Sequence to fold (227 residues):
Amino acid sequence: MTVPGKSGATSQSRGVGTRYTVGADGWVAAATRIDSPNRDARPDALPPTLVVIHGISLPPGRFGGDGIVRLFTNTLDPAAHPYYAGLAGLRVSAHFLVRRDGALVQFVSCAERAWHAGASSWRGRTRCNDYSIGVELEGTDTVPYTARQYATLAALLRALAARYPLEAAVGHRDVAPGRKTDPGPAFDWDRLARLAGARRLRFRTDAPTRPAERPGKAGARSARSAV
Ligand SMILES: [Zn+2]
Fold:
């Protein structure tokens, strides 16, 4: 699935060709596995039906460090950065993290509940962690996510949709409006929908805050979206 002659095709085609498989145990074998202790059983062993997409960087706006992994494994040093002091004692996780270069990390089996959405609701159904899969994209609300991240995310969504009865993929801000803003106006839902092409998934493409419409607001609030 290469596109010869187009600039940027190398990084995109590498990702577009990526295929993942979700095992019956809820783990993606091709992902780097780093177990998080911040997890528990899904109530009534409910299968996940929702994907919640997040944006995160630690410290905010800085990419490539070990802050996210440390946060999800309860090993973040509160003294390592002024911002980290406010995260002390947090017990959070997500099922997946997609790095800026498209690398996929998995912290929690999809069969279990990760602690990513907090107080949340989707179509009147509260406690989204019970029935969702949390995917963190390394980034901020206002810096464009990378082509490799979209490619990895699309491949992951296709694999998840093949394993679970997924109904929708939405943003953290969609399930916690007013409290969370990630993945922010920088995230291109139309692009994800085009790449993923999973007919069973209804992607949120009616984002009320696009970069061209409200350029400053989300950026000012992004630092509060810790997870
Ligand atoms: Zn979030």
Q: What stands out?
A: The pocket of zinc ion is lined by residues 54, 172, 180, 182, 225, 227 (CB under 6 Å). The chain is about 20% helix and 15% strand. The longest strand covers residues 50-56.
